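Worked example 3. Consider a protein that binds IPE.
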Amino acid sequence: MIKKSLKIPNHVGIIVDGNGRWASERGLSRSAGHAKGASNLEKISIYAINLGIKYLSLYVFSTENFKRSKEEVDYLMDLFVNKFKSSSKKYNKENIKVIFSGRKDNLNKDVIDTMKSIEKETKNNTKGVINFCLNYGSQYEIIDAVKKIAKSKIDIDKLDIETFNKYMYNELPPLDLVIRTSGEERLSNFMLWQSAYAEFYFPKTYFPAFGKKDFDLAIEKYNMRDRRFGGIKYEKKSS
Ligand code: IPE
Ligand code: IPE
Ligand code: MG
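Given these inputs, the predicted complex is written out as structure tokens:
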């Protein structure tokens, strides 16, 4: 159980990584790793929102992941469709709103239809927001925002951070904490804009094995950081 005194971040990002390695260490197929990762993701995301996290951005498929074999990409797309269909009821019961960030091109109709339907079914929920980053690349998000701005009627001299943010796939608050499982310490094109002042945490655990206790530890580590935002304020560290 997480300590009551801990500050809960408003927006957390998870770069879901290590499904393949988790599987290969167990002599299983990469697909088995993805399946285990997906069921864990549902569990962890509901847990996180119930802790009081208002926005949870989950990196589940990058624009670059299309470089993988057709077999793996097809498996992942089918898994997304099945998961979104089966978890829709749960997210509704938990009062969680689901949204998506990413390009829609390259995605098949089945995937797009399922995304649209879970968004519609959960749109009035208020406890927290899960933002699935699917066919997402942060550099493309910035390019797409610039294109929308160029086509808009806004006065370019008045463009500021707040206005720019409105042209992203979703208008989101800044990330407070980014967790990447599996020991890799890179962003791989995840939310470059939104993570300007985020804290980073890189546990070694592969995502399918990343449980509630590991998530609690991430929140504890976050609470030990001094967030200064360019200022000189030193906060007392909690142990
Ligand atoms: C993360 O696990 C899932 C996706 C990127 C879709 P990986 O598939 O990247 O797992 P590893 O990095 O090969 O272990
Ligand atoms: C990043 O993981 C993308 C997602 C988690 C969806 P990758 O496994 O694709 O990243 P790299 O290739 O190791 O940087
Ligand atoms: Mg990986």
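Take a moment to read the result before moving on. The domain at 11-236 is CATH 3.40.1180.10 (Undecaprenyl pyrophosphate synthetase). The helical segments are 19-25, 30-51, 70-93, 109-122, 138-151, 161-166, 212-223.
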